[in-house]
Amino acid sequence: MWPLYEIFIRTKNGLEHRHVGSLHAADPEMAIENARDVYTRRQEGISIWVVESKHIAASNPEQQGELFDPAKDKIYRHPTFYKLPDELENI
Amino acid sequence: MMPKQNILDDAKLADQFQDHIDADEKIEPKDWMPDKYRNTHIRQISQHAHSEIVGMLPEGNWIGRAPTLRRKVALLAKVQDEAGHGLYLYSAAETLGISREEMIDQLHTGKAKYSSIFNYPTLSWADIGAIGWLVDGAAIINQVMLTRTSFGPYARAMVRICKEESFHQRQGYEIMLTLCRGTNVQKEMAQDALNRWWWPSLMMFGPRDNESPHTEQSMKWKIKRKTNDELRQQFIDNTAPQADFLGITIPDPDLKWNESRKHYDFGEIDWDEFWTVVKGNGPMNKERLDARKKAWKEGTWVREAALAYASNKVH
């Protein structure tokens, strides 16, 4: 069976490529051609990235705590943490 | 000791899982989920994918005989969309750990079902109109609900599909409208198609709620947001005035607007016919499956050749 590819589409210049789904293809060129037919039948894209799914390394939901909890108590990273007088302008 | 501990962990995880669902959070492929939730989705999404793919056959039957070039390009685009929809859905199902081969094998061996509606034949050009209007109309009602389903990849595939599906229904209704404004013979063709497709379209929503064993769990897990009977009623309420507009008659003597319910009342579905087709004995079950198996078999050398070509290029 053909390997699985993840497909990323840029809808227009100025926007990032976004993951839209996956499909099977024999090689990267075919993955781009198939992605054109499957994901851009109505002008949804001007650029396609494909990557074989097995090359994507992903975090696991079980690691969510250790990865993302440390940011929770760092409210001093947000502008509203700093109390300034109301009459001050342009800051 | 260990098994008991695992059972406790599973119970705790199941509670957390239900909390996520109750809070309207989506479940993503790598999240913990109960086995039954996973298996229900594999079954439902793959059968939905199979329906899109098998659904190409009854309409494909008329591409070469479309009455005008305008109708032909529209029908070609619609059938191509169905292929695309099948592919979105297969890849959503694959995120749950089932392979494409396994799904295709389940279709070919009859282990996996597809929508029974595609086991009816397309006898005239009017059937293409009736399918777009009724079958796609019924599918849209179900699929709009599924854009809010709890499993992320399924919901996202549904959003994309719903955006594309509306053209399918409109082109079908336009065919019906053209026939109904045409000669008497053309209008009779449209009436005949409505007569044959009406009841099977109502059957698309599945058994009645009190005969549908999965409904309660599916609602709790927010796989479904509305019951079969609610969706069916919505379809009838939408469609009855559209038939009036065409000037043709829905083949149900009990169909009548009920002012106190603010819904149409309607007659009983032939559930014997429903179960006969589900069990594989509808008019076209064998032919549809044979066509899929033949296409898969005859495509084998193409799939193998493409793979061989790709591996030669790399080395």
Structure overview:
The complex is a heterodimer of chains A (about 90) and B (about 325). By secondary structure, chain A is α+β, with helices and mostly antiparallel strands. Chain A has one domain: Phenylacetic acid degradation B (Ubiquitin-like (UB roll), Roll). In chain A, about 20% of the residues lie in helices and about 20% in strands. Chain A has helices spanning about 30-40, 65-70, and strands spanning about 5-10, 20-25, 45-50. Chain A has a three-stranded antiparallel β-sheet, with helices on one face. In chain A, a hairpin with a 7-residue loop joins β1 and β2 (about 20-25). The model of chain A has no long low-confidence stretch (mean pLDDT about 95). By secondary structure, chain B is mainly α. Helix content of chain B is about 70%, strand content about 0%. Chain B has 13 helices and two strands; from the N terminus they run ααααααααααββααα. Chain B has helices at about 1-20, 35-55, 55-60, 70-95, 100-110, 125-145, 150-180, 185-205, 215-220, 230-245, 270-280, 285-300, 300-315; strands at about 255-260, 265. The N and C termini of chain B lie far apart (about 55 Å). The interface between A and B is medium-sized, with 18 and 25 residues.
Features:
heterodimer, A: 91 residues, alpha+beta, Ubiquitin-like (UB roll), 3-stranded antiparallel beta sheet, 2 helices, 3 strands, 19% helix, elongated, B: 315 residues, mainly alpha, two-stranded antiparallel ribbon, 2 strands, 69% helix
Helix content estimate of chain A: 10-25%
CATH superfamily of chain A: Phenylacetic acid degradation B
- In total, the number of domains of chain A comes to 1
How many strand units of chain B? Answer: 2
What is the overall shape of chain B? globular
Instruction: Assign an overall shape of chain A.
Output: elongated
Helix content of chain B: 55-70%
Radius of gyration of chain A: 21 Å
Largest sheet of chain A: 3 strands, antiparallel
> Could you say which structural class the secondary elements and strand pairing of chain B correspond to?
mainly alpha
Number of strands of chain A: 3
Q: Could you name the CATH class of chain A?
A: Alpha Beta
- Strand order within the widest sheet of chain A? 2-1-3
Backbone CA Rg of chain B: 21 Å
Largest sheet of chain B: 2 strands, antiparallel
